[in-house]
Amino acid sequence: MTAGLGARLARRIGRDGPIPLAEFMALNNAAYYAGRDPFGRGGDFVTAPEVSQIFGEIVGLWCVDAWERLGRPAEVRLIELGPGRGVLMADALRAARLEPAFRPEIHLVETSPALRALQRSQGFDAVWHDRPETIPDGPSIWIANEFFDALPVRQFVRIGGRWHERLVDRDGDGFRFVAGPALRRAGSGEDGDIAEVCPAAGGIAATLAARPGYGLAIDYGYAEAQRAATLQAVSGHAPVDPLSRPGGADMSAHVDFGALMRAGREAGAAVWGPVPQGEWLKRLGIEARAARLGCQDDALARLTGGDAMGRLFRVLAFGPASEPAPAGFCDGEGG
Asked: Does residue 308 sit within a domain?
C-alpha cells in the first residue's frame, strides 16, 4: 500500500462515507503509475512490447499501411495512448523507416511524470498530452495497447431483485466492498450477478474514432455482455486483492469490446474485429519476421500462442466508414 493514498482514502471515507469503486480505481492507478516503472521482469507485469521487438515492428508496419490507405498525407499524427516505457513506439518507428516518406508527428497520451521521462529517453521527438482531446485535428493513426483495461470501472451487484452499485468502505485498517442503495431502475438479472461498465472507455473511443484515420485497440476482454466481475490487481507478477494496496498495485478490468465497437460506430467510424492477437499477428507475417530475426521460440509463443497472449488478447480496428478492412482484418469482421 502507498501509505499516503491509503490514509487519505481512509480519512475521506470516514468523513463522507463509502466511495464508488470507479473513484477508488482511478485514484489507485493515478498514484501507482505516477512515480514508478511497473513493466518487465523487475516490475509487476510484462506487456507485449516488452516480450519482443517484433510486436512493435508489426504495429509500425501496420501504421505505414494505414497511412497509405489514407492517401499518404504529408502531415499525419501518430498517437499512442498509455505508451509505457515508449518501447512500442520506438520499435514501430524503427520498422516504419522502411518507408522514408512516412514522417508522422508523434503524440503520446501519458499522465505519469516517471513514464514520460522514460519515453523521452527513447530518442524520438513527441508531444505529450494528459488526454486525447488536446491533440490537434488532422489525419491520424492511433494505438492503444493495454490502455483501456486500466480505465476505472463501475460495478453493480444484484441483491434481492435489485441492482446496487458496489462501493468501497473502510474495514479496520483496510478496505472492503459494500452495496450502495438500490437503483430506481430494477433491470434484469439474477441475485449475485455483477455487471461492470467503463464510461471513460466509450468516451475516449468515440473521441478517437471521430478523427480522420485508423486506430487499433489491443487488450484483453470480451465482446459479449458479461455478468461477472473481471476487476483484478497485480503486484510482483502475482494477483493480489484489488483493495489491499491503494497506490501499490496495478488495477485493471477486462475490456468490453462491444462497448468500444458501439462507441466507434456512433462516432461515424467503421470497426473490424476483435480478432485474437495471435491470429492478427500471424496474418501480418510475424512468423516470417521472427524467423528472419532469430526470435526466441518462447517469445513468439507468448505473443501468438493459444494458451498465452495470442488468445487472451484481442485486436479491434477503427477506420473510415465504407472503406475495406485494414491489414490483418477481413471484411465482415465487426463491419
From this structure: yes
- If one counts the domains in the chain, the total is 1
CATH number at residue 235: 3.40.50.12710
Q: Which cell goes with 226?
A: 458479461
Rg of the chain, C-alpha, whole Å: 20
Q: Which residues pair with 196 in a beta bridge?
A: 155
| Assigned domain for 190 exists | no
Tell whether 255 is covered by a domain: yes
Alpha helices, DSSP H only, in the chain? 3-16, 21-34, 48-51, 53-69, 87-96, 113-120, 199-209, 257-266, 277-283, 286-293, 297-304, 309-312
CB 324 within 8 A of CB 307: no
Q: What residue type is 88 in one-letter code? A: L
Of 186 and 164, the one with more pLDDT: 164
User: How far is C-alpha 101 from the geometric centre of its chain's CA atoms?
Assistant: 29
Q: What pTM was computed for the model?
A: 0.93
Quote the domain boundaries for residue 123.
3-17+34-152+197-320
Rounded Cα–Cα distance for residues 48 and 302 (Å): 9
pLDDT tens for 174-211 read: 999 999 999 977 678 889 899 999 999 999 999 999 99
